[in-house]
Amino acid sequence: MNQASGFPGHKTMAESVFLCVGLVRNGAKSIRREVERLSDALGGSKALHFLFIESDSDDDTVVELEKISGTFENLRYVSLGRLRDEQPKRTARLAHCRNVYVKEIRENSIYLDVDYVVVADMDGLNTKISAEGVESCWTHDEWDACFANPDGPYYDIWALRHPDWSPNDCWAQYDFLNKYSKRRERNLFASVHARMITIPKNADWIEVDSAFGGLAIYKRALFEDAEYIGLDAAGDEICEHVTLHNQVVGRGARLFINPAFINAGRNGHTRELFFIRKIRRKIKHAKKRMRERASRNR
């Protein structure tokens, strides 16, 4: 990692203003704790802003956002109401909501002095985020966006693009395999679960064309001329993170997964993988015992 991009260089955390953005839906019971975790982890910054985009909540999320906006300094939210009727496809809604914070970053004078934008999932995933993990991102200078690493299998395969590890849309591959094979579990493993590798915390940084994983730090400049897109030309759902990253990489941005930037533990995304691995081990051991019995009976 010795070639810098054409984007502005880095300031230290203590010199930098951070804006933490995220989408919120049905987060009334969890949003306060999420903000507290992020605030603690980003406490080494010069200043910290929060901006949340809410939509389609069926609980008291908006009420809770109003409460915490009076508790946490520099916390704002935008409620977009119910979008599901006019935009039934999930990725279209996600892209629409994310582009609201992109517009705020570009146009709202409150954020003119922001140096870094932290994009965070606000669904209870980031339970292991820490100041130490955030600060580890400043041990390297070459990145324009830095993505977190879970303490366990890397689960966010749909957002991941790497020429060797995950070069394509995993779900498009799964759909393709299903056309020619009825072994759906095997197709799912080949397309998705086989890519869920565990990255040691002390491993080298991994340069990627796209990633997310629930938490990312971007240089503000990346949002000046890029937007999220959630549907392809045919109207099919695509990962909105990939479309944004395609644009910024095309402008010379360098994106990395930082293995020491731990944000999450085991979660709903990885439970199925652990179950499958457990079943595979049991099948393997059963086959071994059968071979041993057959050998003894000869």
Describe this structure in words.
By secondary structure, the protein is an alpha/beta fold. The chain has a domain at 13-151 and 198-265: Spore Coat Polysaccharide Biosynthesis Protein SpsA, Chain A, CATH 3.90.550.10. The protein contains eight helices and eight strands. The chain has helices at residues 31-41, 61-69, 90-107, 131-135, 170-180, 184-191, 240-250, 268-296, and strands spanning 17-24, 47-54, 75-79, 116-120, 145-149, 206-208, 215-219, 255-262. Strands 3-2-1-4-7-5-8-6 form an eight-stranded mixed β-sheet, with helices on both faces. Helix 5 runs antiparallel to helix 6 (184-191). The longest helix is centred in the C-terminal third of the chain and has 29 residues, at 268-296. The radius of gyration is 21 Å and the shape is globular. The termini are far apart.
Write out key terms for the chains shown.
alpha/beta; Spore Coat Polysaccharide Biosynthesis Protein SpsA, Chain A; 298 residues; single chain
What kind of assembly state do the chains in view correspond to? single chain
The Rg value, from CA coordinates, equals 21 Å
CATH homologous superfamily label of the domain at 13-151 and 198-265: Spore Coat Polysaccharide Biosynthesis Protein SpsA, Chain A
Could you estimate the helical fraction of the residues in percent?
A: 25-40%
Outline:
globular
The helix count comes to 8
Number of strands: 8
Output the CATH topology of the domain at 13-151 and 198-265: Spore Coat Polysaccharide Biosynthesis Protein SpsA, Chain A
Q: Pairing-aware structural class of the strands and helices?
A: alpha/beta
Instruction: Give the ordered list of helices and strands.
Output: EHEHEHEHEHHEEHEH
State the CATH class of the domain at 13-151 and 198-265.
Alpha Beta
